Amino acid sequence: MGVKKIKLEHNTEIELDLAPLLAVMVKLVPVLLLSSAFVQMMIIETELPQVVQEAIQRQDENKNEKSSITLEVSNKNGLKIIIKEKGINKIDTVPMTAGKFDWVSIHGKLKVVKKAYPEIFKVDLKPEEDVAYEDLVKLMDEARRSRDQQKFPVYDTQSGKNVETEYMFPEIVFANTFEG
Amino acid sequence: MSRRNRYQPPRKRASTFTLNITSMTDMFTLLLVFLLQSYNTAEVQIDLEPGMRLPSSNTSLNPNDGVKVSVSTESLKIDKKELGKIINNQIDGKDLDSHDSSFILPLFAELDKIMKSDKDKKIVKEGRILLQADARLPYSTLRKIMYTASMAGFPQLKMVTTVGN
Fold first, then answer.
1. I need a labelling partner for A65 at 20 to 30 A (CA). Which of A25, A26, B104, B155 fits?
2. Contact B122, B94 (CB under 8 A)
3. Which of A172, A43, A72 has its CA nearest to residue A120?
4. pTM of the prediction?
């Protein structure tokens, strides 16, 4: 019996059937369009490293002994940093520049305060009634952590050593919410 | 003058034709990649109110669940339910308690209803509020919301912001 030889043409072009692939994509696109987040939203709250959380806890426990920092925000006078230490108030001000908050100076001043009081992580915020919400969020951003990765010492109770963190004042409390 | 008919060559009418879908598939592939990139993986779905401009922040925390309170330059809402109007960036005077100008009556009533209801027990127990507020609003308006929410047993306020520098 003779074997029939099959001739293979190597130069033939195969056309791929893309129709099923396209059908899947057409179904996928609306699903993804519905579940896509075009504006990414985040929240401001305190979720911090263990060491920083412990430091805040220590600050809460020793409320009466340690110093406290209050930030008074005003559209007229800018930012007033009030440091209460042993019953004495030290006041530092960052005035407005051309009717706007000077965020660079505010951040710089907060870093100086943090250097002087590395054990404080919690600040009281007292804005005036007319201060815009976006300015308050910006102030919280400036106070939360060092922008230039500068580190501040914090005592780690587990290792018994000082470790470094870029967090400055991550816990901000609206202190005048109940003041009418 | 006589109108002459234009000469039309005889056309071959094919019974079937194949559509070239390669370029369309290319386009869909690009679209899929883009959509997969912006796919929302957050556990909480937050719908932005129309016309609202949220403040931008450098915080990197994904929102977690809470009672969704939104305050735009026009209205105060809880989960799309309008509770009151905002006039000139302030809470409408008729919604405030006559004895306490910081107390928003409809907001307290709604939060109290949520507090007493059986649903979302964890949120209620922790007293968590997700506040979407327009960036242009003054602190006085926000303070009244914070004050009323605290009075209703919701002291944990999470401020919703957009991602920015």
1. B155
2. no
3. A172
4. 0.72
Check CB contact of B23 with chain A, cutoff 8 Å: no
Pick the CATH number of B56-163 from 3.30.420, 3.30.70, 1.20.58, 2.60.120: 3.30.420
- Residue of A42, A46, A103, A142 to mutate, testing the B interface (most B Cβ within 10 Å of its Cβ): A42
Instruction: Give the residue extent of every domain in chain B.
Output: 56-163
A177 touching chain B per CB within 8 A: yes
Q: What are the b/e assignments for B91-126, b being 16+ CB within 10 Å?
A: beeebbeeeeebbbbbbbebbeebbeeeeeeebbee
Q: How far apart are CA B158 and CA A46, in angstroms?
A: 9
Confirm whether the ipTM is greater than 0.95.
Answer: no
